Amino acid sequence: ITAAADAWARGAAALPKPWQPQKPVLPVEGMRNVLITSALPYVNNVPHLGNIIGCVLSADTFARYCRLRNWNTLYVCGTDEYGTATETKAVEEGLTPQEICDKYNAIHTDIYHWFNISFDYFGRTTTPYQTTIAQDIFQRLLARGFLLQDTVEQLQCETCQRFLADRFVEGTCPFCSYEEARGDQCDKCGKLINAVELKNPQCKLCRGVPVVKPTQHLFLDLPKLEKQLEPWLEQSWATGDWTANARYITRSWIRDGLKPRCITRDLKWGTPVPLDGFRDKVFYVWFDAPIGYLSITANYTDQWERWWKNPQQ
To answer: Which intervals hold domain Methionyl/Leucyl tRNA synthetase (predicted)?
Structure first.
């Protein structure tokens, strides 16, 4: 309190001069460098107050605080544009997935600008950088033996002549009997679902009853990472600021043992899989979308690795 009173008495003239970062904002030796992201908003809707309060506003508040502290701060975000939900919305509106993305990216950009959200850069995931970086990470995983190939029982709509990715299927949850569960998870009980486990499944496009057929997919071999992950988590829990909920969920995954996770989908709209035998597939959006933070920064500056591959800073 005494220090605050002294600072108040000295007046604004005694305050440090505001830091004016270079453009683009890059890490500076000897300064505190802060990279801020907020969850990438999905592109298939018009954002409302709940989205802004629950997503970008907290990050915006923190970015403003960091700048007031004269910390060298970069705040990036952008629309998440690949995946089944975009294809579904395109069908609903009679547009192509690219047209849907262009339409809603512009709407998101205008709304955040109207609310004066202080992004240094607001981008999107449908860019060449996204393809390059995602495929590079995939190739590294492949070269290091962290990928598996397996046959998956998947729902196919014979009327639409296509395998149905998670969100093209609705049915009754096998755990809680909620009648509008998706093919990837139940929004009522929160459990992850394999689409073939749904009771009374329906194709969202034609409302036909799909049949189960085998198809080949690639999996991230998460069990192989457990021995490396556990000591990293212990160190991170000891030194980081994890919420109680994040600790609980992560511990439960480790306790139950990590399972291989499918990273490919039988879709057209997404980042192409650069591997023979799988070139007609794309990456699952939850493999692809987190890489959007890197690719959006790369679209902001070609020196993006100074932010994302620079632990000393």
So the answer is: 34-311
